[in-house]
Amino acid sequence: MKAIVLKDLIKPGSKQKAELFYEEVPTPKPGKGEILVRLRTAALNRRDIFIRYGMYPGIQVPSIPGSDGAGVIAEVGEGVEGFEAGNEVVINPSMDWGENPAFPNPTFSVLGVPIDGTYAQYIKIPAENVFHKPDYLSWEAAAALPLAGLTAYRAVVTKGNVKEGDTVIIPGIGGGVATFALQIAAAKGANVFVTSSSEEKIAKAIELGAAGGVNYRSENWVKELKKISGGGDLSIDSIGGDTFNDLINLAKPGGRIVSFGATLGPVNNLVMPRVFFKQLHIMGSTMGTPEEFGEMLALYKKNKIQPVVDQVFPLEQVNEAHLQMEQGSQFGKIVLTIPE
After folding, report:
1. Sorted alphabetically, which SUPFAM superfamilies does this protein's record hold (predicted)?
2. Domains along the chain?
3. pTM of the model
C-alpha cells in the first residue's frame, strides 16, 4: 500500500524537521479483535508537526503518522461483532483509555506514531476504536472530526459542564479544537465569544454561531471582551501564557477554565488570590473516552453539524499541507485524500 513514513528521530530544540517519505509499505493484516479499514481521507493535527520536530514523547521510527481517518471496512478479524466489510466508518484515535473515565491508563496513546496511523491506504485498528460514520458527513468532514472533536467535547461538555445560557470564551479561534468547541457549545445553547488576530476568522466564527468576538491585538481587548460578554462562565483554553491570566480576569465568580494546550508556554505571574477569591474551577483535559467519542458523534448527528474543513490536499502533498498548518492561517481542519 501507499503510505507516508517518518524515518528520522529529531533532537528536540534543534529546529530541524524530519522528512516524510511517500512510498510502498506492506499492507497490514487484522488480528483477533481488529478491523482493517481502507482509508478514504485523513486529517492533520498539530501533533503531527510536533512529532516532526521531535517535540513529542514516545516517538519511534519508522512509523506512519496521522491520528484522524475515515474509510470503508475491508476486512474484520476474528471475534469482531457489529461490523462487516463495506461499512463506512470513522476512527477514534484515543487508544487504550482504560476503565476509569476520569483519566487514561498508563498505556494510553494517540494513534499515529508510534502506532501506525492514518496517512496510508489501509490501517488495522482495534474494533473498539471503530465507529459507524454518520451518513450525512462527507469523507472530508468525517476525517476532520475525530481527535479535535473528541478533545473539544470532553473539554466543553464533560469537564466544562456547559449549560444552556452559559457564556463561553474561546481564545484563538480558527484551530481545529477551538472551532469544534465553538460548535459544541453553541449546540448546547451557550453564548460563545471568541478572540483572534484576524477579523476574518472572527466573522467566520459568528457565522458558525458565536455571539461575538474581539481582536486580541487590540490594546484593550480584555476590557472590550468583558464589556460585550459580561465575563465567562466557562473558558476553553489552548493558549496558556499571558492569555491564561487574561481568562482568569474575564472569569465570573465560580467560573470554570478548561485547559487542553499551551501554545504560548508557561503561565507566568499568576496571582493566586484572583483564583481563590473568585472560587474558580481550573481543570486540565486531553482527548477522551470511547463513550465520549460516541456521544460526540451523536451530538453532531442530532444537530447535523458540519465540521469545518479549510483545505484538502492529496496524500502525496502532505508536506505542502503541513506547511499550511505551520503558517496558522487556516480556519478549521486540513484534510488529506487517500489515493485509490
Report:
1. GroES-like, NAD(P)-binding Rossmann-fold domains
2. 2-145+307-337 (3.90.180.10), 151-284 (3.40.50.720)
3. 0.95
